[in-house]
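A further point concerns the way the authors explain their paired sequence and structure data. Showing the layout once, in full, would remove most of the difficulty. For illustration, here is how one protein appears when written out as sequence plus structure tokens:
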Amino acid sequence: MIPQSLAYFEPGFFQVFTNEIIVGNRETFLHDPYGIILTRETAEKYFGHTQCVGEILRIRLDGEMRDMRVDGIIENWPENSSIQFEMILPFSWRHDRMMQYSESQWSTVYSHTYVLLQEGVDVEQFTSSLHAVQNGEEGHWSRDPLNYDLQPLSMIHIAPNNPRNFPRAIGW
């Protein structure tokens, strides 16, 4: 089976973004590199029901068939969200594959990052600290600095500088 819409997230995704958990434990989601989270519709499509935690789903990733164990089922993601998926894998899975690829070829890989700032954090100061860590004298990108743009999550979908309505910046 080839995933129609696959997303890669860190375990903290489920602490920031809330959605109804049908089966499984939000606290343990995405810790197992071979665990997969399915939406209700996807679970019903491939298993005929949502009580499939622990069952194996064989999917094609990077040209190879992989056995992934279902760790949880969540309610379908809202259709009006900029984030869309049918299945979720741990970001560590993608990261490992990116590192293997980048050792042999030059590549650019972009990931959308969402951060949850504590109340009262100065956004400009936080952004400056990101620049300092990434682009400082000893930073990897000191010769060709990266720039970070922060925008409120509520503005990602409707931002005028975001013509495809796709999350392209760090949200807070």
Summary: The helical segments are 13-16, 40-47, 91-104, 123-135, 153-156.
